Amino acid sequence: MIYYPKANITPNLFSNGEYVLNGSNEPYTGYYFSTYDGKFYTGREPGDGVNLELISNGPNYQGEATAGEIDYRFVGQDNYFYSTTLKKLTSITPVSLTPQPFYPKPTLVDYQTGEITRYFSKKVNEGIFYETQGTFQNTLYISFNIPWLITGDKDNVAKVNQRIVALKEAELKIIGLGIYLKNNYIQFYK
């Protein structure tokens, strides 16, 4: 297996049989990780065990190769099984190296609860923020979440949300989250 920097892998994923070990039809159940180039390996991360390659058993899985699709580089006495069961995968979208922007839409249940959780990522060496759907794992970004009030006394909601933003900026030693939010501390308020 080639070396992958931590920024180019997504660790600690779990398979319930949607992947098979490369070269067999044995479903794999357990932890795995993905790489930026769309490959999957056993283990929580590189170096965690043997790291065998996995192949998707899901919607991209196309079954056994037909006679015209056999890769004859592998034909031989020991490799007959592999030459007749090579799988073809459609293109797999590589894992994103940047957060995907997301705009939250509170539901009726959220308004009954009175708050939502907002997720953000900030580029480590720049003042670039993204609001995301969940925690984004990448060594180039700091990911965090904050509770966000959306109901109650309007003035109180604004004060609490402003304090939460200030506390998170101080805790993470970052500047600019309030500016990113355009100092709109009653966003999503109803």
What features would you describe in this structure?
The structure is a single chain. With 190 residues, the protein is an alpha+beta fold. It folds into two domains: 6-84, no CATH class; 108-180, no CATH class. Helix content is 18%, strand content 27%. It is built from four helices and seven strands, in the order ββββααβββαα. The protein has helices spanning 80-84, 108-113, 154-172, 177-180; strands at residues 9-21, 27-35, 40-42, 53-56, 115-123, 129-132, 141-149. A four-stranded antiparallel β-barrel has the order 1-2-3-4. A three-stranded antiparallel beta sheet has the order 6-5-7. Strand 1 (9-21) and strand 2 (27-35) form a beta hairpin. The longest helix has 19 residues, at 154-172. The chain is elongated, with a radius of gyration of 23 Å.
What is the topology?
Layout (H helix, E strand, L loop, with lengths): L8 E13 L5 E9 L4 E3 L10 E4 L23 H5 L23 H6 L1 E9 L5 E4 L8 E9 L4 H19 L4 H4 L10
Antiparallel strand pairs: 1-2, 1-4, 2-3, 3-4, 5-6, 5-7
Short descriptors:
190 residues; alpha+beta; 2 domains; four-stranded antiparallel β-barrel; three-stranded antiparallel beta sheet; 4 helices; 7 strands; elongated
Please state the average pLDDT score. Answer: 80
Strand arrangement, largest sheet?
A: 1-2-3-4
Please provide the ordered H/E string of secondary-structure elements: EEEEHHEEEHH
- The share of residues in helices is 10-25%
Between the first and last Cα atoms, what is the distance in angstroms?
53 Å
Strand portion: 25-35%
The biggest sheet, with number of strands, parallel, antiparallel or mixed sense and barrel status, is:
4 strands, antiparallel, barrel
Global outline? elongated
Rounded Rg: 23 Å
Number of strands: 7
Summed up, the domain count is 2
**Which structural class do the helices and strands define?**
alpha+beta
Number of helical elements: 4
Low-confidence blocks of residues = 59-72, 74-91
